[in-house]
Amino acid sequence: MSVSYTQRRRDGEHQQRKREIYDSGNSAVVLPYDPARKTVLLTRQLRLPIFLHDGQENVLEACAGKLDGATAEERIRKEIEEELGYRIVEVERLFELYVSPASIVEKIFFFIAPIRPHKEFAQAAESRRRGKISRWSRRPWRTLRTGLRLARSSMQKQSRSFSI
Predict the structure, then answer these.
(1) For residues 21 and 18, what is the distance between their CA atoms, to the nearest angstrom?
(2) Are 92 and 72 in contact (CB under 8 A)?
(3) Model-level pTM?
(4) Of 65, 79, 86, 115, which has the fewest CB atoms closer than 10 Å, so is most exposed?
(5) 47-61: per-residue pLDDT in tens?
(6) What distance in Å separates the CA atoms of residue 85 and residue 89, rounded to the nearest whole number?
């Protein structure tokens, strides 16, 4: 969608502006973690835009999906089951943000979820056989914990520095 509007500049003058805005729908992302092993589960999937841009066939990524009318919590539980083969009951919402607010209207809800492999593994063999579950990979939690702290800190700084 193309939008034209008048924006007041810092010097008080008004300026005509035009922007393209794209609404790709809201989504949710989760880092399922195994507290006993101190690892997180990530998926490996083909993402065509990344393949076309960088030639990478399988991208390591966090489990995520579009909301498509579901709540963020409902969607992320379903994505964990579909992509990783786990049935998760407990999810913790960390924060939500607009990823590229200059042109894209997409809010992403960020979660973490503890997994207990011996209790919550959901018939993954059958789902894998049908090709529904992506390949997944365990990664040490300590390497991601620093990044998560930085993201939270960055969000707190952003929310303090802007007002509407």
Answers:
(1) 10
(2) no
(3) 0.70
(4) 65
(5) 888 889 988 888 888
(6) 13
